User: What shape does this take?
Amino acid sequence: MAGFSQGGGVGLALAGWMTDGDPGMDVWGMDSTRFGNWATPAYTDAKVREFYSRRFKIAFPNEELPAGRPLQTTAIYDEQTAANAVWGAAFGLEYPLWFQRPGLDPVEEITFKRSNAFDAVGEESRAVREQVGLTEISNFAKYAVTGPGASRWLSGLLTNRIPPPGRMVLSPMLNEQGRLIGDFTVAALDADSYYVFGSGIAEQYHMRWFARHLPDDDSVQLRAEGVGLVGLSIAGPASRAVLQDLASTDVSAEAFGFLDFRRLDVAMIPAMVGRITFTGDLGYEIWVRPEYLRTLFCTLRAAGEPHGLRLFGLRALDSLRLDKGFGSWAREYRPTYGPYEAGFGVFVKPDKGEFVGRDAAVAERDSGPKRRLVTFAVDAVDADVIGDEPIWHDDEVVGWVTSGGYAHWSQQSVALGYVPSELADVGESLEIEILGIRRNATLLKEPLFDPAGARMRN
Assistant: This one.
């Protein structure tokens, strides 16, 4: 669930991931081929030339640039291309944005307004809410943390308690100043074996932080899986029925609860399955080694056909998370913000013991955050927020939008952003400026979809 947000650009090549003679080894002596996202000089050259040639051109929020693509693809790239996928790329890895209707060119028109993707994304979103959807999640970052010191080490870096075997938790990660530098899902296979899932675009950033804090002994082994571990997610009210048709054991609500994580055979395929999705609905994330991904994809599609299964991409996932007011890494969650102003206070456990940023987080909690992350319903017409739009109150700019878009299931334009704490609970409307026009924006007191969270928990 954590680590939804993606991004493109030349950041991989310029992120400071230096090597020392051996192209397969990074500065810590780790095998960078296991990191999944590693730039060659030719790829770096192609992206730098592309960006340099565009330095005076307008950049559109939905524009995908073609240089150096495709570089990395998974085993189901051709299957999804045949399904008319419109592709995006982040740090060299291709992932589906949305699926164009049959017979139409899989191309998205670049615009600051709603694009030709709007109706298809709406159909994908409704398929998830009404039946079941299937999407690839290989672009998430995945870290394996093992060894007798794994639990203690993770507890010293993350704000939440480390889960017991077979369970998952959501946890922020802070720097020494108590600012957000990560948001993760932590899954425990057993007492000495954990998987940490996060944002794909932050993999190298987080690996540098992790490596800096590794103990001097060999009590902790750390590996970024990259595309050595890939996955699919099924979500929607029929997702349990699809999985049960294929699972080797009982996956009923009583036997496989919300935030459970376990090894599971899905048909013939050995997998790790977590009961969680970023859609805010009933759903599962299924992780496998890359040699199984194609068979898993085809098996799930066949099993899902009687249930109305539909493929969906990142655009629909973004729409669905707006139904729930879920934030994403590098937009709502970044080192500018503290955990309490970002609404992460429930995941911060100062009483568990020491962790990086603990004292600063306690100080923020005790003094109260000066600003807070809130969600708005916006009276938009043909364009939605994209991020960084000003938030107005009494003819003054009081905050800024971090992200947003159109929540198709709720049929509502949505924006997330930060405002002063004294405005975060007011009943009156504010305004958000979209393409130079101020639009009425109403603070939402609860999510538009399933406020109690019953769908994802039951």
Summary: The longest helix spans residues 41-53. The CA atoms of residues 242 and 304 lie 6 Å apart. The longest strand covers residues 396-407.
